[in-house]
Amino acid sequence: MKEETKQRAVKAFLIFLAAMFVLTFASRAVYAAKLPKVTYTTLKYQKIPHALKFSGNVDAVNKIPVYIPEGLRVTAVKADCGDSVGRSNVIIQLDRRQLSDAIISLENQIELELGSAQTYAPEGQVPVFTLPDLRLIELCVSTGDSVSKGDTLFRLDSDYLSRFTEQLRRDLNADIVSLNELAATGEGSSADALKGVISEKQQIYDEYRRFYESGGTVTAPVSGTVTDVLVSVGGMTMDTAAVLISSSPEISASVEEAKRKLAELKELNDNEGKVCSPEIGVIADINLTEGDITDNSAAFTVSDPADGIVFRAVIPEGDTGYISEGDKVDLSFRNGKIRLENCEVKRIAKPIKGDGRKVVIELNDDRLKAGENGELTITAFSAENYGCIPLSIINEDKGDGYIYRIEETEGFLGKEYVVHRVDINIADQNKNIAGLIDTSLDDTTMIVQTASKELSEGQKVRLS
Amino acid sequence: MKKNMRTLPVYAVFALICAAVIFPVLIAVLLPFRGNDELRATLDPLTGSDGSYSSFGIVAQYPTLDNFRDLLIFTPDFYKVFWNSVLIVVSILVFQLLVAIPSAWAFARFDFRGKKLLFDLYVIFMLVPFQVTMLSDHIILDRLGLLNTRLAVIIPAVFSTFPVFLIYRGFADIPRDIADSARIDGANEWEVLRYIGLPLGRSGILSCVVICFLDMWNMVEQPLAFIQDKALYPLSIYLPMLDMGLGALMLAAAVITLIPAAFVFIIGQDHLEQGIIASALKE
Fold first, then answer.
1. Res A290: pLDDT
2. Could you give the ipTM of this predicted complex?
């Protein structure tokens, strides 16, 4: 072969090697640019913290609820939650006309009820009896009347009483004549029987005669209230009680309630329908607005900050397991401008209304006022330790979560990294991390955290 | 005319043999210039089980350099193994010459006790195939802590007896008078080798370089036996590792792999022939 050809071949070979050398770098640069750059993380075994947030209010320890009798219309509400109020400051104005009507109505109702025997309890009643078979001509009392000892209860017909007594006397005299005749004829046994009858009749006659001589009136044996009248004008007396009197009558609860309500209404009426704050303090809450009809719940509550303030929040039933008395919690107020950390839960109780638990936390911060809204943050941990990964690295495919793990392999270029998809099951999670179960991953597995490009199964990547 | 008629069948037979030899190379060179669809028609039947035969057209329907672009631009693996091959082969050749030239000079120029026996042993070792010494090599390399390194391939090859044999023939042809005259002029043995032996035995050395280059460039068993780390693999075992899915890439890589060997062959062709002829005639 010619030397010139050889030299050309040598030159060409050197050029080939030079080209391969340059292309080596070019190819590596292109390859590196094509590979997705990824960062990775590993499983961290820990309990998952849950930051639970609940809204609540600052309240005074001492709260005074103010009640207004039911059924009254509110014409004006002159304070709002959080307002500082002084004693006798008007909070609510009631409709005065309706208030007057309610008073009249209630008075009538009480009067009616007091006239009913059912209003009184049967215990302690004194029955008033009179002689039977007499006609009543005047009833001086009615149920509910108060009577003093000796007061006339009712009068009987004196003419009728007179005739009835005269009749008794004549019967008695006739029997005496008969007795004398029997004695004269010597019928001793019949005379003895008649003597007994005459003695009995004499006794009855004496009672009626004395009653007649006393004027035919029946008086109260004790002072008290007439709790029942069992006779009527024109009617005949019987052996049973005519009137019942109770020296200390027990009125039924409804009448008592009505009386109490009446007293309250009258007090309100005297105050021109104005409902005032009972103490100096802050309005904690108002449950009425203009036009509302009052009900049996508190119309408003006045807090007294002088006795200290507390934070109250109601935690839903499902979250009550995350908090217990003595736990330390964080509070924030005014959109986070005031933050109180490690506040101790003083008390947990079931609220009067609704579900869940009422949490009370004592506050010692002069900046806070009763009535302010705040947020309670509880940091609770899961019961078990889980292998945790950031929630942001979990991909989703048709509702199933998956991640990419990075496998280190020996390739032609040395250490190479290949990603493989791993389906995961989330046992527990919060806003930042997820705890996995039944996973083949361990704390040495590299898990893709971020990738510069979308990844796919088996793709080579490079670590950034 | 009659003579031409008699030689014509002979030419025809040789032409057929040449065609049979060239055809696989031709396929290897032409296929990478086809697109993926066209290649699939050729390669898929090779892996299919439907009994169909691979078809091949000499001229590509849509000639393309895409496969070479993919290989040379988007496959950095290829360069890694290419330079691995270059490093291994060059290292072997350099150190082989450093070992083989003095050995061959000693066999060619010095008379010492047991020389013939030793040379015969060299020849015998040259004839021993790699598979026979593979296990013992493996044990020794393991004890030396050289397994899974490039040295595991380089060191056994450096002490190969074949280069000694090839170079020995070149040195043996040098007339003794020339070397003696140099000694008379005051040259020591290293100077005789440097100024007389190397220039005059150049053809043997170069033929050794060419033959050994081609041998080492294509060696498969040694790296396969002693290297596990892919990053250390030479080109010769990179190609078989590409699966049929990367057939286009494999064909392009085969062509590129052929280029250095072709250059070395072209450059050293004369010396290669001389070396082979010398070895054949003198022995």
1. 87
2. 0.86
Residue A72 lies in a domain: no
Calculate how close chain B gets to A38, using CA atoms only, in Å: 20
Partner-chain contact B231 A414, CB within 8 Å: yes
Same domain, A399 and A440: yes
Q: Do A1 and B270 touch (CB under 8 A)?
A: yes
B267 vs chain A: nearest CA distance in angstroms?
5
Nearest to A27 among B75, B231, B266 (CB): B75
User: What mean pLDDT comes out for the span B85-97?
Assistant: 95
Domain extents in chain B: 2-64, 71-282
pLDDT band, very low/low/confident/very high, at B282 (cuts 50, 70, 90): very low
Topology of B71-282 in CATH? MetI-like fold (1.10.3720)
> Is A421 within the bounds of a domain?
yes
SS3 B54: coil
Residues A167 and A200 in one domain: yes
What is the nearest CA distance from A27 to chain B, expressed in angstroms?
Answer: 5
* pLDDT computed for residue B153 by the predictor: 94
Instruction: Name the region of A167 (left: φ>0; alpha: ψ -120 to 50; beta: rest).
Output: alpha
Per-residue pLDDT at B135: 93
pLDDT digits (tens, 9 = 90+) for B55-66: 777 777 888 899
Q: A119-174 pLDDT, tens per residue?
A: 666 667 788 888 888 888 888 888 777 888 888 888 888 888 888 888 888 888 88
Whether A458 and A448 share a structural domain: yes
Residues A22 and A39 in one domain: no
CATH for A126: 2.40.50.100
Chain A positions touching chain B (beta carbons under 8 Å): 1, 5-6, 9-10, 12-13, 16-17, 20, 23-24, 26-28, 30-31, 34, 410-414
Using one digit for the tens of pLDDT, what is the confidence trace for A360-410?
898 888 888 777 889 998 887 888 889 999 999 999 888 889 999 999 998
- Judged by CB atoms closer than 8 Å, whether chains meet at B266 and A5 is answered as yes
In a domain, A86, yes or no: no
Contact B264 A13 (CB under 8 A): yes
Nearest-Cα residue of chain A relative to residue B260? A13
Assess whether A24 and A40 both reside in one domain.
no
CA distances to A62, A348, A357, A363 from A325, rounded to whole Å, are: 21, 6, 11, 15
pLDDT of residue B89: 96
Domain boundary among A230, A250, A270: A250
- A430 within a domain of the structure (yes/no): yes
pLDDT score for B233:
92
SS3 labels along A412-453: CCEEEEEEEEEECEEEEECCCEEEEECCCCCCCCEEEEEECC
Regarding whether A448 and A418 lie in a shared domain, the answer is yes
B39 forms bridges with which residues in the sheet?
none
Residue numbers of B between 69 and 108 with CB closer than 8 Å to A: 72-83, 86
Residues of A whose CB is below 8 A from B80:
412-413
B231 inside 8 A of chain A by CB = yes
The DSSP result for A67-114, as a single string, is ---TTPBEEEE---TT-EE-TT-EEEEE-HHHHHHHHHHHHHHHHHHH
The closest of A297, A34, A393 to B75, measured between CA atoms, is: A34
Using CA atoms, how far residue A348 sits from A318, A321, A324, A327, A364, in Å, is 15, 12, 7, 11, 19
Range(s) of the domain holding residue A14: 1-32
Low-confidence ranges of chain A (pLDDT < 70): 1, 114-123, 186-188, 248-253
Based on the structure, what is the number of domains in chain A?
3
What does the alpha-carbon distance between residue B48 and residue A286 come to, in Å, rounded to a whole number?
A: 86
* Backbone phi and psi for residue A104, each to the nearest 5 degrees, phi listed first: -60, -45
Instruction: Assess whether pLDDT exceeds 60 at residue B283.
Output: no
Across B126-137, average pLDDT? 89
CB A113 within 8 A of CB A258: yes
Report pLDDT for A142. Answer: 81
